TrEMBL record:
Subunit structure and binding partners: Homodimer.
Annotated ranges, domain Phospholipase/carboxylesterase/thioesterase: 11-120, 122-191
Task of the protein: Acts as an acyl-protein thioesterase. Hydrolyzes fatty acids from S-acylated cysteine residues in proteins such as trimeric G alpha proteins or HRAS. Acts as a palmitoyl thioesterase that catalyzes depalmitoylation of proteins, such as ADRB2, KCNMA1 and SQSTM1. Acts as a negative regulator of autophagy by mediating palmitoylation of SQSTM1, decreasing affinity between SQSTM1 and ATG8 proteins and recruitment of ubiquitinated cargo proteins to autophagosomes. Acts as a lysophospholipase and hydrolyzes lysophosphatidylcholine (lyso-PC).
Gene3D superfamilies: alpha/beta hydrolase
Coiled coil segments of this chain: none
SUPFAM superfamilies recorded: alpha/beta-Hydrolases
Organism: Acanthochromis polyacanthus
Protein name from the UniProt record: Acyl-protein thioesterase 1
Membrane-spanning intervals of the chain: none
InterPro entries linked: AB_hydrolase_fold, LYPA1-2/EST-like, PLipase/COase/thioEstase
Amino acid sequence: MCGNNMSAPLPAIVPAARKATAAVIFLHGLGDTGHGWAEAFAGIRIPHVKYICPHAPTMPVSLNMRMSMPSWFDIYGLSPDADEDEAGIKRASENIKALIDQEVKNGIPSHRIILGGFSQASANSANKDMHVLQCHGDADPLVPFLFGSQTAEKMKSLINPANITFKSYRGLPHSACPEEMVDVKRFIEKQLPPISDE
């Protein structure tokens, strides 16, 4: 399963229009699948970039009365002090690393792979020089805008603050919009330019 042992279907993939020399691995949010995001990336496709949109396994989610739904790990609550499913986060991280390793085996260098996601955030000292585009709608009823701006500030303490771009979108709820997708495309084009022999 392309290195994905999350008991989920194979990822939705938007192949590069020519030889893939870069990849974007994009994680969907709670209850979603990779299909819609693959469609969104098909609409902003960059010819040398392969887009991989994996599907989270279906599992009971405590936040939603243990209802089974696609989720990368269990979510106990949305407050900043809520407990976290550390084992589930570690398992999801290992499976995502397997997807990255598979793309490296396919010939794409790790520095030409972007990991992104909807309603996701993570950083550690090993990634202190990475570039981050964080987008957030100011009308998000699920993840308050304050959480998004606090996450951006926390990220600045973990990685090079000059590499963090926080963009807000007026009136946008917990979803994406065309303006945001254009910003995502520009970010990808800047981070993953064509290689000179393409």
